[in-house]
Write a structure and sequence with these properties.
CATH superfamily of the largest domain: DD-peptidase/beta-lactamase superfamily
Structural class: alpha+beta
Distance between the termini: 167 Å
CATH class of the largest domain: Alpha Beta
Radius of gyration: 37 Å
Low-confidence stretches: none
Length: 583
């Protein structure tokens, strides 16, 4: 029988030494890691921690206002709030309740909000870009039961007039950037500079007291004051809109210019752009047709041919022409607007009755090169110089390339193309004694200190002599007489000078001339001109003569403008003008 096993215990000192060595090894690893975290890598982890705590927020700058010449706000900036949600903070069971509450307050589809709340991987979803502060306040008062919903300070753009000067003013996008019109042209000035703020926040997004914050103050945008007068703009817009509808026309434009300064008093288009609902309008209708749409001017262009003839000394107002109702030019036979026997018309009569044939006869005494030079001097083939978005130069072919028939048709406004503003500028030049002033739309802006800085005066250019301008004015006044084509533009008590225009209209849809452009442009008082008014209507379907379609618009707008600006009649009588020889 074996004796019982005896348990032999090892050396206790050895076991203790092994344990101490093991503990020392483990502690050294911990110490090394601690040195790494708090020493070597401390800055890295401090930066990561700060990145998690510090939240940056853009502080939007207040956009400057656009006003009329008298300070009435046409475009302004109002306080607003952005509403957003953090889907990660909204429990799935609460999504329907939160979506229902927000939909009721914001008047938005519940499904749209629910879809944003369902994006659980996101920490930020915008629900509404710009709501009234009172609405945001109501929502935030329910914050305890609407966990994950937040509000940010924002601004929104407002246009009190709705569609008043819509295409001229333009609009801004959701990010506050000007997308069209003056909002786009002067965006950098109006926008100002956004600021930025950095604050330290806790896990729930609350600011940590006594922590650092960094603030970059936003710089407010500067204001733009226009030369436009609100009431006259309204009258011009109503008159052109009503006539476009009444005649079944495609579009129309009406412009009012100050004769002495070239400043735009009104610039209206029809149909006009509703700035409160611009998203519902096709982009091709965002443009300011007064400066973007080009067309053949027709008989309103005869004033330039008349100026060239008088300036060259080739004719005088009393020069008599034997005028048939047609004339051959190269391979074409060109006609007056109606058949008539051969008439003995003075040159004044040629302009007053708007004879195409008579105008061609006068232009033949001037010559192609001189007529082309006069067209250039009046601004054809060059942008008017307002700087408006999309401003066009029109088309003025080189006189050396004129075809046989074009040498005749350009004399009465077919074969060249212009904008409405270019045409109005021609008559401003005549009304201003032969001096063209670059059209101006901005009266001035505010500096960063708030002081008003007026725009430089428009450039003045002598185009024709004062005598020529005076003689052409007399012809244009005769054109508004009972014997002229523009008698519907006459205004009781005032002397009015002006010209009708009826031109064939090229339409790409039919790949040819299949419509008309009806125009009337003139100034008053004729002997002491203060204002130029132009009305142009594209593709009317109930009549087409400029004297019937556009002249009534001129009369309405000019009558309103004269009264609005308190311009009295001169009390003088127009000199007698011979229309036909022997009278």
């Amino acid at each position: 029988m074996r004796p019982p096993a005896v348990l032999r215990l090892g050396n206790p000192g050895r076991r203790i030494n092994v344990g101490l060595i093991a503990m020392t090894f483990v502690l050294s690893i911990f110490a090394g890691r601690l040195v790494q975290l708090q020493g070597l890598d401390s800055k890295v982890y401090m930066a990561e921690a700060a990145e998690q705590r510090v939240r940056g927020e853009k502080l939007p700058a207040r956009r400057g206002s656009i006003t009329d010449v008298n300070g009435h706000e046409l475009a302004l900036t109002l306080e607003a709030r952005e509403i957003f949600v953090d889907p990660s903070e909204v429990a799935p069971a609460d999504r329907d309740r939160v979506a229902t509450a927000l939909a009721a307050e914001l008047n938005l589809p519940k499904e749209q909000i629910a879809a944003k709340l369902g994006n659980a991987a996101s920490r930020y979803q915008q629900v509404a870009a710009a709501v009234e502060p009172s609405v945001a306040q109501r929502i935030m008062e329910h914050k305890p039961r609407l966990k994950g919903v937040g509000s940010k300070h924002r601004y929104r753009r407002d246009y009190p007039g709705g569609d008043l000067a819509g295409t001229l003013l333009g609009f801004v996008g959701d990010d506050g950037t000007g997308l069209s019109g003056l909002e786009n042209t002067y965006n950098s000035l109006l926008a100002g500079r956004d600021g930025e703020q950095f604050i330290e926040t806790g896990r729930e997004g609350q600011r940590i007291p006594m922590t650092r914050s960094t603030l970059k103050t936003p710089v407010e945008g500067r204001d733009v004051r226009l030369t436009v007068e609100r009431d006259i703009q309204w009258a011009a817009q109503k008159a052109i809109t009503d006539q476009v509808k009444a005649t079944g026309a495609r579009t129309g434009s009406a412009i009012v210019l100050d004769v002495a300064t070239g400043q735009v008093v009104a610039m209206a288009n029809a149909p006009e752009l509703d700035l409160k609902n611009w998203e519902k309008t096709a982009p091709e209708d965002w443009v300011n047709r007064s400066v973007t749409d080009v067309f053949e001017p027709g008989s309103t262009n005869k004033v330039i041919t008349a100026a060239a003839a008088l300036e060259s000394g080739a004719v005088r107002p009393e020069t008599v022409f034997k005028v048939p109702d047609n004339i051959r030019c190269a391979d074409r036979v060109l006609r007056d607007s109606h058949p008539h026997p051969v008439e003995r018309l003075t040159f004044s009569g040629v302009v007053a009755t708007s004879s195409n044939v008579g105008t061609i006869l006068a232009s033949q005494r001037v010559g192609d090169e001189k007529l082309h030079a006069m067209l250039e001097r009046f601004g054809f083939g060059a942008k008017p110089g307002t700087g408006l978005l999309g401003e066009e130069a029109g088309l003025l072919p080189d006189w050396k390339k004129w075809s046989g028939s074009q040498r005749c048709t350009i004399a009465y406004g077919q074969g060249v193309s212009v904008t409405a503003l270019q045409t109005a500028s021609v008559y401003q030049t005549i009304a201003n004694g032969g001096v063209r002033v670059t059209p101006q739309i901005v009266a001035g802006t505010t500096a960063e200190n708030g002081a008003f800085v007026p725009s430089p005066a428009g450039k003045q250019t002598r185009v024709v002599s004062e005598r020529t301008a005076r003689e052409v004015s007399g012809m244009l006044e005769a054109a508004v007489s009972d014997e002229g084509t523009g008698n519907l533009a006459a205004i009781d008590g005032y002397r009015v000078a002006g010209k009708t225009g009826t031109a064939m209209r090229y339409d790409p849809k039919c790949q040819g001339y299949c419509g008309y452009t009806s125009t009337f442009v003139g100034f008053a008082p004729a002997d002491k001109p203060r204002l130029v008014v132009l009305a142009v209507i594209q593709d009317p379907h109930k009549g087409y003569y400029g004297g019937e379609i556009a002249a009534p618009v001129f009369k309405k707008v000019m009558t309103f403008a004269l009264k609005s600006k308190k311009i009295p009649p001169t009390g003088t009588t127009a000199a007698s003008v011979r229309i036909r020889a022997g009278e």
